[in-house]
Structure formats: structure tokens, C-alpha cells
Amino acid sequence: MKQGYRVFVAGYLFLLFSSFTGAFIKPVGFQKSASIKESDPRKWDGIERGEIDIASFIAGIPFAKKSGGTIYEVEPERKFNETIRRGQGDCSNMVFGAAWYLDQHHVDYAIVYLLHEETFLEGKAHTLLRVRYLIDGGVRRGLVDIVGGGLPLSRNRYITIHDLEGGGLLNLNMRHLNSQPTSDDTQYFGRFLDQAEIGYVPGWQVNRYFKFIRAVYIPLGSAKVEKYLYDGLAVLSGMYPTVYVKSIADLYGRRLWMRYYFLTSAWIMRSALFVMPWIMTTILLRIRSMRRAKRLMNSTIRMRG
Q1: How far apart are CA 58 and CA 154, in angstroms?
Q2: With CB atoms 3.0 to 4.6 Å apart as the test, which of 195, 233, 234, 303 could cross-link to 240 if both were Cys?
Q3: Has residue 2 been placed in a domain?
Q4: Crossing angle for the helix pair 3-25 and 256-304, to the nearest 10 degrees
């Protein structure tokens, strides 16, 4: 084989290995970086269809005493069973479990992230649900803190996504709708919020992601392996929900280079679907050619002998 081809193959395989290694070491950073895009917050709406009796829904969650830790169930219905029916999981798990329920009942919603520059690439953020809900005899379009078991308040007024964008929320508390919530997450609405970027995920993209997972899902015996594998496939195939933020530069700050590293890694992984078959075909053809040449040489030697 030509020297240039060998250098290309060696270099490409090194980049592919480095990409997979980076994604394995920081799976949340890879996932978030590959799915985050900038968008005007004024476009973050589209929640018009249906509503949920939020008091009954939250009250029905049997929050486990030791819940709050991450669960790795990736299949949507299984995640719903672990989170909403059994009360397990962290804020993100709980919201995605609730999202499955809302999809099944044809209720519009969105997922809202509070993303802090210093922690979001490690998976340390807070996740809320935005939905139309019934409360006190009326319908509101607002935020629900599932893992906190209630509705966040500022000065005794229900917090909206526009309040999150403005920041500076005072006199924070939670209207609890369950006697055993996992935690009081008003800590995320004070100083943390003032230093955080708001991430917005449209419900229809979450629904598309659920359909993709259910279409490809095969049990592998390990929830953690399934989570990384199927979410990775969703990212690489463009089926993972997009997280829209107002400013990517403000979100990443000094770690903006990590976004470009993970984006490049994602494209290198996608290219493997085309490059690796070409490399393997070329190698196999080369081996076949060498075998033919060897047989021809042996045949020539026997004829001369």
C-alpha cells in the first residue's frame, strides 16, 4: 500500500479512537455539546394543547426516601415506571419520565434546563417541566419542579420561564404538592440561576427521541450500557433532542474549546459509517490482490520447475 494511504488510515484511526475516548470519559459533555444550539428565547413557546391536573399528578408520585440519584433506564416506558410510578431518579430522570406520560396523553410540554457554566458539562444542572396545568380552579402555563414535588414561587407568585430569563428572583419558596418530595430545589432559583443559562427543549423533539429509542431498543442486561449506547446512537443520528440556549459563548465561557472538541468528535464518529467500510474494502482488496499474486508466482515457479 502507498505510504500516503497508510498515514491517512493511521491518522484517522487515532482520531476515531480519541473521539470515542473523549465521549466515554465525559458522556454528558459529549451529549450536551452535540445537541446545544443558539435560539431567540422569544421563539420558546408552542405549548397550547392539553393540560394536566398537576396536584394529582405530583401527589401520586411515591418519592422514595433514598431517591435523587441517577437512574440509567433509557427505554421511555421503563423510565416512566422507575421515576413516576416508583419515585426513583434525579431531576432529569423525573422530568423525562413525566414527559413520556404527557406524550401518551397528548399534552404539549417543554423541558427547561438551568445550566451553569462550571458544572453543566459534568451533568450538574437542574431540570424543570414547562406545561399547561390545572391549579386552584384555573389553567396556567408554567414551570413544575418534579423532583422538588411542587411549583416554584417568587414572592408567592408562580415562576414562569420569563422570570428565569430575567433572574434576580426574591423570596423563593416551593408550593409542595406531595408530602414526601425528594428535596427543596429552591436553591437553584437564587444565586445559581443568576449565573446560569436557560436551556429549552421542545416537547416534539423529546417525543421523536422516544420513538427512536423504542424503535432500536434491545435489552442488553445493563441499564448503564444501554443508556450510553442508545443515547450515543441518538446523538450521532440527529435524534437526540436539541437544547436551545440564548448564548453558547456565555454558557461555555472559558471552556468553549470543549464544545468544538465534542462537535468534531461527533462528526468523526459519523464519518466512520462511510470511511471504515471504505478502509476495510480497500484492505480486503489488497489482501485479495496479494493472494492472487502469490498464487501466480507459485504457478510460475512450478512451470519452470
Answers
A1: 20
A2: 234
A3: yes
A4: 140
